[in-house]
Predict the 3D structure of the following.
Amino acid sequence: MEINDLEPAIVVCSGDLTAYGFKQEYAEAKAYLDRLACENVVVVPGNHDSRNVGYIHFEELFGERNPVVHLNGVSVVAIDSTEPDLDHGHIGRSRYSWIKEQFSQEADFRIFVLHHHLLPVPGTGRERNVVYDAGGRRTVASGLEILPPGAG
């Protein structure tokens, strides 16, 4: 694999691993990702992965759906933003304190990973495929304030 030539310390895969969340699709995705020579592979499911109880297959093959890695001054906090059998995403206020806690460790660089867009991508047909609780006037992600277009 070309990525192994780079010898990365961390590899992030933010879904979709499957088209329909079927067990055989997961087995193929797992076999492919197992070819990575990296010890720290962070994987979260995408909306297609949570179809047809795919989130159960995800946990069986990949483990935790909200993995966290702290390595060499880098913090990677990944969260499952999927809703079973739906295209949109959701984080939920109940998880905000957990996310903040994961980022409380000293780090030079912090990366927040989820499958869904924080903001709509105009003209792509993905205007509705966003995280529901990030679509307000202001979104805060990884300590950066992101303003939607025209919301100065």
